[in-house]
Specification:
Layout (H helix, E strand, L loop, with lengths): L1 E6 L3 E6 L7 E5 L6 H8 L7 E6 L2 E5 L2 E2 L7 E4 L11 H11 L6 H6 L15 H14 L4 E5 L7 H18 L3 E4 L3 H7 L2 E6 L2 E5 L4 E11 L2 E6 L10 E5 L7 E6 L4 E4 L10 E9 L4 E5 L2 E5 L10 E6 L3 E4 L9
Parallel strand pairs: 3-9, 3-10, 7-8, 8-9
Antiparallel strand pairs: 1-2, 1-4, 4-5, 5-6, 10-11, 12-13, 12-15, 13-14, 15-21, 16-20, 17-18, 17-20, 18-19
Helix pairs in contact: 2-4, 4-5
């Protein structure tokens, strides 16, 4: 993508780069840096002064070419739900699906737990329910790519934490690549596969990807599930933890970890309040710390010094889980 846009002397967007069409790419940066403007320009909702926008092998915008927004197959979730107030929940969702001739979207409704809401009026929904409906409407249209512009803005922290697993499950179920604009490190840890910075209208480069363990659900207990890290032996109790029930036994989940929730030590911490406590082998130690945990290779914030081949212990105070139902396809 190559996008250049100027608004008088106040703001200039000048972006040149590529984003993989897999998983969830988070775009982060300070307010006013151009994140929303970039999404709107890529979607064709704003006309840049100069653009070369391609999706896969298709030119969306370039010299003599402009594909209108409705033909770009973008599912756009805006700040705020932006639902049609005169339509019910089911009518809002059908609106998005009907425009693209989609008749089956039951898996998306299940992933977002929208069944009980379908006959409700949207003006009677809570903030969290309205965001789930907005995401369902976007995904029911069978988009080629999903744009999420701070979809949890305006919600309190508890509602945000409740909604994150729904977003992860729905995007995974739809197997659609997504670009996710956010300020929140917790949302990045929970959802993002990679992180791209944007500030003052320019890309600032790829950031260190989120720390994420892969685990498998081994049992359920009411609204919770117990998971075990992939590759961990059965007697490694520190490799097991309990998370909300966002997957079923045998299914995979990702456990995102914010850097401030991770402690790296050279000796076993023994009993602690950590939700995970596991040994790791140092694989790389220059310019960053890369470790192997039961066969999973993780890039961690710099610490040390540590010798390659040496053992460290990772203690995790909090995890942000997401379902891992398979990555999005590049040939959408």
């Amino acid at each position: 993508m190559r996008v250049a846009l100027r608004r008088g002397d106040r703001f200039a967007l000048d972006v040149d780069g590529k984003v993989p069409l897999q998983g969830i790419t988070a775009i982060v940066g300070p307010s006013g840096g151009g994140k929303t403007t970039l999404l709107r320009a890529l979607a064709g909702l704003e006309r840049p002064d100069m653009a070369d926008v391609r999706f896969g092998g298709t030119v969306w915008e370039g010299p003599g070419v402009f594909v209108p927004p409705e033909l770009r197959r973008i599912g756009f979730v805006f700040q705020g739900a932006s639902l049609f107030p005169h339509l019910s929940v089911s009518e809002n969702i059908r609106y998005g699906a009907k425009r693209r001739g989609v008749t089956k979207y039951g898996a998306i409704l299940d992933a977002l737990a929208l069944g009980p809401l379908m006959e409700r009026r949207v003006d009677g929904l809570s903030g969290g329910e309205a965001r789930r409906v907005a995401l369902g409407r976007a995904l029911a249209s069978n988009p080629a790519v999903l744009f999420l512009d701070e979809p949890l803005s305006g919600l309190d922290q508890a509602r945000k934490e409740d909604l994150l697993p729904y977003i992860g499950r729905a995007v995974a179920e739809a197997r659609v690549p997504a670009i996710y604009v956010t300020h929140s490190r917790a949302e990045v840890a929970a959802l993002a596969d990679r992180v791209l910075g944007l500030d003052h209208g320019q890309l600032t480069g790829w950031k260190t990807p989120p720390i994420r363990f892969l685990a498998r659900v081994i049992e359920t207990t009411g609204d919770s599930v117990r998971v075990a890290l992939l590759g961990a032996p059965d007697d490694a109790l520190g490799a097991r933890t309990v998370i909300p029930r966002l997957a079923e036994p045998g299914e995979l989940v990702g456990l995102g970890v914010r850097s401030e929730s991770l402690i790296v030590s050279t000796v076993s911490p023994g009993r602690s309040d950590a939700v995970l406590s596991v040994p790791a082998t140092v694989v790389e130690a220059e310019g960053g710390l890369v470790v192997d945990v039961y066969g999973q290779r993780l890039a961690l914030p710099p610490s040390g010094p540590h010798a390659i081949g040496g053992e460290v212990w990772l203690s995790v105070r909090e995890v942000s889980p997401r379902p891992e139902l398979g990555d999005s396809a590049e040939n959408r």
